[in-house]
Amino acid sequence: MVVTADDLDAALSTVVASLQPATALGWSARAGSLEWDCWHTAEHLGDCLISFAGQLLARPEKRFVRFMANADQDASPAEVLEFAEVGGRLLAATVRVSGADVRAYHPSGQADPEGFAAMGCVEALLHGDDIAQGLGLAVDPPRDVCTRVLARLFPAAAQELAGVDPWAALKWSTGRIELPGRPRLTGWHWRAAPLGE
What we know:
Oligomer: single chain
Number of helices: 7
């Protein structure tokens, strides 16, 4: 099961479709269990996804590329959501043109394009869900995308939670929820490097 740029596009489309109905609201509400408000969570999402694209382009071995992407401080909720979506579309485009042999730094391992696509899916879906919770909405992502992302980034959890809804398993793996018999994680990490490396 390979995570692709198409999976990232599907995750982004789900998040944008879920959040667009609330762009007329103020986004100063707290985003889920995060300390950020919805607006700053969307800004963080855009920066994170653009940063992942930068990693694939520059291919540093021991550090992040030295830049930060920010939305204009007077950006409306619709505009900061657009900023996040553009970040994701840039990452998807970069994944598409990067060879499978490309590796770039991430603290959780030298990631390949598939790893960055999978991490982008997690960032988009989980932070999209954080924002949705703050706005009284919900994100309902494609389960096949969640299944592939779990297998790529959280292989042990993917096996242990094979009978659990993949979206719930992904939220549990990132410390967002508890599952029956499994308390909410207070610390977690994913595997950015390819599974065979």
